[in-house]
């Protein structure tokens, strides 16, 4: 095994052995690298992570500097190690952790830390592995991956090539797709297509009238940033249903509901079982949170039991309801949104976007309110997309993935949620068979796995992949030439 045109410092020298290349060093890739290092232990091998950011584990979600962009899960449920749920919580009280801003803890003692702090936590646990040479961080972008016999040639933007025995695809979330109704604003500076881009929201002047398209957690984060900037021109938040992420519930007993025994085979049957469970819990004095916690825990088995057609039906009819109950809003974020709404600084609209046109008075946006046949109009100065990543476009939008598709080694999953994989995490090529040595980490595998957006699920999947990777390493180990 060898590296081509790759300078290696003494601190980055690893034991000879097979090479595992991880493309993407956000949370998904960093978690795989961390667990691989634990599973490999003293066995020879190289773990090489390609990530352009200066530190591993930051990614898109955990590199935001805004202190109001918080984890939507409390500290005792965020961890790099599933068997140690308090791993992050203990780190927060260590000398390595930063001081948290006032208000990070709730009255119940739960900490909803700024997301950047979780990024620091992950980076802190990868740093010793990098210093010891057990993980090599290549601060670069992968532009092409080519199959070369039983191995892969991973090329970065500099032209350097790493030859690897196995490749893990852990690429970043793609930006939102521009809705056709907003096509007239393409390339217009009044449109912010990717609000996560550095400095994107700083361009919004305090007096501007703002329309946010989408009403989930991303919209709440955008609103928090605008409020922090002193935005006073008014914010409208638009989505078809007008639904928004729900707050966390009280401490309570667990539900007795069970969804894996004789699992539902249709989306309608699943919905009926959930409604029945909610009614039973309500009779016991429990809130809806208990049932949805059980659904999340049993998500992989529930998803696996649904045929493809029923998965499509679920996504079409029930996904929005699932998302607002599954992806709950941090109490501090909920408070900012609620105060802004009470003060009249933000207004939610349940409506369908019809189109937009530039006028002397601003951007004239046409909408159809939910349940109405009549059109309405909103005049704004700025439109911000908060519709979520366009996972269905991830292959076409990423040169490395596109190169694999050209070779027939990857394909979109049938639900357009990411990349087609086997239940074990191997990429499925266009011939319909698993591709040896090619794995998919993180949310891009959720078409097969099901729920794979939250940290607990991504961590569990990373642990699974680490075991799969080590179990399928070529034997005998290759030698550095």
Helix-strand blueprint:
Layout: E1 3-4, E2 19-23, H1 27-40, E3 46-50, H2 87-92, H3 115-131, E4 135-138, E5 142-148, E6 151-156, E7 161-164, E8 166-169, E9 191-192, E10 210-213, H4 217-228, E11 235-239, H5 267-283, H6 289-297, H7 299-305, H8 308-317, H9 319-326, H10 331-342, E12 346-359, E13 362-369, E14 376-380, E15 382-385, H11 399-406, E16 426-428, E17 434-440, H12 446-449, H13 455-471
Helix pairs in contact: 1-3, 1-13, 4-10
Key terms:
alpha/beta; disordered N terminus; 481 residues; globular; seven-stranded mixed β-sheet
Can you characterise this structure?
The chain is α/β, with parallel strands linked by helices and 481 residues long. It has 13 helices and 17 strands. The protein has helices at residues 27-40, 87-92, 115-131, 217-228, 267-283, 289-297, 299-305, 308-317, 319-326, 331-342, 399-406, 446-449, 455-471; strands at residues 3-4, 19-23, 46-50, 135-138, 142-148, 151-156, 161-164, 166-169, 191-192, 210-213, 235-239, 346-359, 362-369, 376-380, 382-385, 426-428, 434-440. The strands form three sheets. Strands 9-15-10-11-12-13-14 form a seven-stranded mixed β-sheet. The protein is globular and about 65 Å long. 43% of the residues are buried.
């Amino acid at each position: 095994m060898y590296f081509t045109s790759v300078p290696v410092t003494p601190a980055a020298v690893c034991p000879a052995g097979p090479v595992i290349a991880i493309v993407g060093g956000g949370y998904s890739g960093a978690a795989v690298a961390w667990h691989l290092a634990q599973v490999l232990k003293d066995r020879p091998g190289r773990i090489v992570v390609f990530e352009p950011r200066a530190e591993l584990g930051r990614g898109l979600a955990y590199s935001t500097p805004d202190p109001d962009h918080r984890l939507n899960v409390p500290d005792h449920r965020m961890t790099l190690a599933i068997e140690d749920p308090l791993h992050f919580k203990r780190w927060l009280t260590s000398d390595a952790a930063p001081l948290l801003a006032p208000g990070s803890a709730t009255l119940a003692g739960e900490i909803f830390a700024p997301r950047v702090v979780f990024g620091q936590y992950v980076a802190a646990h990868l740093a010793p592995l990098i210093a010891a040479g057990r993980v090599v961080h290549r601060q670069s972008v992968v532009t092409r991956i080519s199959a070369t016999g039983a191995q892969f040639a991973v090329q970065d933007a500099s032209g350097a090539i790493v030859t690897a025995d196995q490749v893990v695809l852990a690429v970043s979330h793609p930006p939102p797709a521009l809705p056709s109704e907003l096509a007239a604003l393409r390339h217009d500076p009044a449109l912010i297509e990717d609000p996560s881009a550095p400095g994107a929201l700083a361009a919004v002047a305090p007096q501007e009238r703002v329309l946010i398209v989408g009403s989930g957690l991303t919209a709440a984060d955008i609103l928090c940033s605008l409020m922090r900037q002193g935005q006073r021109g008014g914010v409208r938040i638009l989505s078809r249903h007008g639904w928004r992420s729900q707050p966390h519930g009280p401490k309570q007993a667990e539900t007795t509901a069970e969804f894996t025994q004789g699992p539902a085979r249709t989306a309608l049957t699943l919905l009926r079982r959930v409604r029945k469970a909610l009614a039973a819990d309500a009779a016991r004095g429990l809130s809806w949170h208990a049932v949805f916690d059980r659904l999340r825990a049993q998500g992989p088995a529930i998803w696996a039991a649904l045929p493809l057609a029923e998965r499509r039906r679920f996504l079409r009819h029930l996904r929005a309801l699932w998302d607002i109950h599954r992806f709950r809003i941090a109490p501090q974020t909920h408070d900012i949104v609620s105060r802004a709404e009470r003060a009249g600084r933000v207004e939610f609209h349940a409506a369908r976007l019809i189109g937009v046109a530039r006028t002397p008075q601003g951007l004239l946006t046409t909408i159809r309110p939910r349940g109405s046949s009549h059109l309405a109009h909103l005049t704004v100065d700025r439109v911000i997309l908060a519709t979520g990543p366009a996972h269905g476009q991830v292959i076409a939008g990423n040169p490395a993935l596109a190169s694999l598709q050209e070779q027939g080694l990857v394909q979109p999953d049938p639900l357009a949620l990411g990349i087609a994989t086997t239940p074990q995490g191997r990429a499925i090529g266009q011939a319909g068979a698993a591709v040896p040595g090619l794995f998919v980490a993180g949310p891009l595998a959720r078409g097969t796995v099901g729920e794979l957006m939250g940290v607990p699920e991504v961590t569990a999947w990373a642990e699974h992949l680490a075991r799969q990777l080590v179990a399928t390493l070529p034997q005998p180990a290759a030698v550095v030439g």
